[in-house]
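Let's do one together. I've listed all components of the complex below, 229 residues spread over two lines.
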Amino acid sequence: GNSVTQMEGPVTLSEEAFLTINCTYTATGYPSLFWYVQYPGEGLQLLLKATKADDKGSNKGFEATYRKETTSFHLEKGSVQVSDSAVYFCALSEGSSNTGKLIFGQGTTLQVKP
Amino acid sequence: GAGVSQTPSNKVTEKGKYVELRCDPISGHTALYWYRQSLGQGPEFLIYFQGTGAADDSGLPNDRFFAVRPEGSVSTLKIQRTERGDSAVYLCASSLSAGPPNEQFFGPGTRLTVL
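Okay, and this is what the predicted structure of the assembly comes out as:
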């Protein structure tokens, strides 16, 4: 079945460091890919998305490119801030389904230290 | 405008009891989803409603779980004969319609603890 695998955390970085959180997926067809973020004490929020191969999603300085050849959607940010500390979830929505249901990875905790 | 709301925010119950969890979606959103998030895991899909009907309930773990959305707005997730393994955060999400590019907006969740 369809699945999403993320790198295990926690990831601890100093402020202004470069961030990469790896995400790979298994899916039939052409899924849409997402990164969601959960800040401490808050609900899940959509961070960015890409709906077809080679699309790049971006928001708040974060980027991820939909790579069909490597079935990956790695999250990157050039310079992290303390306020980026959160749990990040990679997710996919099956392309063959019109329900929009999401399949999530297990989440990666990011801690940014001043 | 108001986001997705869920009540209660916390629910503690005893094994074998019945619980109801409520979700108020964003007004006008026709698609509604329930997910379950266990500690240290990502959310897992339970059920999807389009309007009043459950269009996909493939994620419900067993027949103790049931959900309704009688008027196409508020939804209730019902769990019978609760077990300790049901302890998790139950998340509700809504979107304008189903599928990308429609964004799913998540509520804050109900933390269910079964003693």
